[in-house]
Specification:
28% strand; 228 residues; 6-stranded mixed sheet; binds magnesium ion; 3-stranded antiparallel sheet; binds adenosine-5'-diphosphate; alpha/beta; 9 strands; Rossmann fold
Length: 228
């Protein structure tokens, strides 16, 4: 790892608990983590330990119960809504476990949307290229309901890649894909990482994907430990 690279994610004493009908649920009370630009980091661990919650906190999509998360030295929770949205548009992409595609838009329109928000001059061409790269060149006009789960996942991945973000967060990006398609997606993820220094933070149960990352962190019983 090149330690001279900019620190892009810094979690300090991060705690998260939920108040539920059954009482308070504490997922973790003191997570500390620094990630530098261009690093690739896998987060692994058993189901229900709080990996998805932690990823949302690291991406600034959710607020910690206490502690802080800085992205590029900025605490998103201290920005107003407009500045926070601008920061996200500029630097961050997130591939959710439930893909969050817009149901009334086609695959092509879903991928074009973030490009149009950024006033990309060739949004349609760029979106088409990325859909072709994930093997969906023949599904451009399909709506999410007309695509399989794995295809929807690839649309979500194309959408996250298209903006060439500085920080890419993905929650089990190969979870619904067959081995061959998963391998292609992994190659594209690491292509972005190598060519554009995209920082990757990925939750995964896929050991092939975890192994390709420079660092692997395991979340278990509220503790995040470096396992490689
Ligand atoms: P993982 O991704 O490791 O499977 P999650 O972060 O999705 O785990 O969830 C961790 C635990 O927190 C689960 O038991 C889940 O039910 C609980 N949880 C997640 N979000 C909420 C919420 N908004 N309110 C209450 N409990 C939640
Ligand atoms: Mg999860």
């Amino acid at each position: 790892m090149d330690k001279t690279m900019e620190k892009v994610i810094s979690a300090q004493h991060v705690a998260k608990h939920f108040h539920t009908q059954a009482g308070s649920l504490e997922l973790f009370s003191n997570i500390n983590l620094d990630i530098h630009q261009g690093e690739s980091v896998a987060i692994v661990g058993p189901s229900g330990t709080g990996k998805s919650t932690l990823l949302s906190l690291l991406a600034g999509l959710d607020q910690p119960s206490s502690g802080s998360v800085l992205l590029k030295n900025t605490d998103l929770n201290k920005l107003d809504d407009k500045s926070r949205a601008e920061f996200r548009n500029r630097y961050i992409s997130f591939v959710f476990q439930a893909f969050h595609l817009l149901p009334d838009l086609t695959a092509l329109q879903n991928v074009m949307l973030p490009l149009q928000i950024r006033n990309h001059a060739q949004a349609e061409q760029e979106a088409t290229n990325w859909l072709q790269k994930v093997g969906l060149g023949k599904r451009l006009g399909h709506k999410p309901s007309e695509l399989s789960g794995g295809e929807q996942q690839r649309v979500a991945i194309a959408r996250s890649f298209a903006t060439q973000p500085a920080l890419l967060f993905a929650d089990e990006p190969t979870g619904n894909l067959d081995e061959h398609t998963g391998e292609q997606i992994i190659n594209q993820l690491f292509g972005l990482n190598q060519e554009q220094h995209t920082t990757l933070v990925l939750i995964t149960h896929d050991s092939a994907l975890a192994k390709r990352c420079q660092r692997a962190l395991r979340l278990h019983n509220g503790v995040l430990e470096e396992i490689s």
